[in-house]
Amino acid sequence: MGGIGMTVVNSSLNPPAPARGVDVFVAAVPLTATKGAPQLLMSTAYSFSLSWDLQHFMVITSSADLPSQVMVSDFQPQDPESIYAALAAISGRKIPGVLQMRMMKKLPKTKCWKVGSCKVDVVDAIHKFNSNWDTDLIIGRHDCRHYTNVECLTGEKYVLDRLRTSRTSIA
Length: 171
Description:
The chain is of the alpha+beta class. The chain has helices spanning 37-47, 83-91, 122-131, 144-147, 151-154, 159-165; strands spanning 22-30, 55-62, 70-77, 95-104, 112-118, 136-137. The protein is globular and about 45 Å long.
């Protein structure tokens, strides 16, 4: 399963006309896990910023023209709550992943950092990037952290490394 360019796009995504000069953000949210104790553990670790590795990272873009709408792009397991996804994460095996694009009403209030701006059509740049992205997900080697390195939008390499080591750390 998986492969290059197998993009899943939320059907509710109807972005406005091509946006240029768009702000680019990286945000972190708790990892999704199977219900019960695993989910409680993930949420607790996220709340107390216990581990960089126990967060899901995503790219968010926001245009001054439409501040009430932001576009989110991310890469995650096809079924993040599956026990098979958890076992694959522990064992380092690949699992099917999905690329998603969706709209949100506003930026998250916490764990969201502006990492630059994009001077090209954001939607086109993300579609082009996604068309070459291998959707076989391997935790720690090819996952949301690698997807979120936004070089195609900002020109900066290793954005997450910079954020991780900065004074406003996301760990």
